[in-house]
């Protein structure tokens, strides 16, 4: 069984039959139980609704899938908001010490035609994307891509016979004559040129990725002990005990309060 609980995995659809059913021997990616073992849950193996999980694992409560070694970011797995519409479990990313979402990755709750949905915690997402190592990784990947593209472009111009002073139209014509027209099989000469540069570009990306990995970039570990527990936010309520709404604004108060729909005591707090 693959240790990828909560992560969306796809099996090759070339193995499905004429009715769109996948092989009956496949097992749940989380618990290892044979999918549709009793024959009463065809959605577990139907290609259009397959998510790699059995019904109990699909509807299980939220849990931590993995934790980032770099800064403790947690990848969370939530049950689908509307399984009849989409059976895939929902993923969130959160920090356990976030005062806004309390480590749940979700802050504002809303109800739509497809069920109860949550809004991603913007503070956790901003903290994730603004980490210095992740920012450096983005810059390095962009620089490497541009440098490799520029080197190959110059080599392609030389091989196609493009002169130093040439119009864009003439340059495009010479390149097309060398690489072949769109939709046609590329000539052997172009394939040979590309084969010379692809290994070098791949090697450069490997070296950069190795340096970033040593600094903890994109390195994950499995949760240990009680780290797989997810603390969820409670519904907002008035101090008198009346729950007014499932919607919470940026101040932590119920939207019913901000919309002038006041409780009789007009005092609000977060439900314990």
Protein traits:
single chain; 272 residues; alpha+beta; four-stranded antiparallel β-sheet; two-stranded antiparallel ribbon; extended; disordered N terminus; disordered C terminus
Task: Compose a concise summary of this entry.
The protein is 31% helix and 14% strand.
Oligomerization category of the chains in this entry: single chain
Strand line-up in the sheet with most strands: 3-2-1-6
Q: For the record, give the distance between the C-alpha atoms at the N and C termini, rounded to a whole number.
A: 39 Å
- Helix % is 25-40%
Report the count of strand segments. 8
Cα radius of gyration in angstroms: 26 Å
Order of helices and strands: HEEEEEHHHHEEHE
How would a crystallographer describe the biggest sheet?
Answer: 4 strands, antiparallel
Spans of at least 5 consecutive residues whose pLDDT stays below 50 are: 1-9, 234-272
Mean pLDDT: 78
Strand content: 5-15%
The computed structural class is alpha+beta
How many helices? 6
**Basic shape:** extended
Could you characterize what this model shows?
Residues 1-9 and 234-272 have low confidence and may be disordered. It contains six helices and eight strands, in the order H-E-E-E-E-E-H-H-H-H-E-E-H-E. The protein starts with 54 loop residues before the first helix and ends with a strand. Helix 3 packs antiparallel against helix 5 (188-214). The chain has 272 residues and is an alpha+beta fold. Among the domains are: 1-60, no CATH class; 130-217, no CATH class; 234-272, no CATH class. It has helices at residues 55-58, 122-129, 132-160, 168-179, 188-214, 255-258; strands at 63-68, 74-78, 90-94, 106-112, 115-120, 220-221, 236-238, 268-270. It is 31% helix and 14% strand. It has a four-stranded antiparallel β-sheet with strand order 3-2-1-6. Strands 4-5 form a two-stranded antiparallel ribbon.
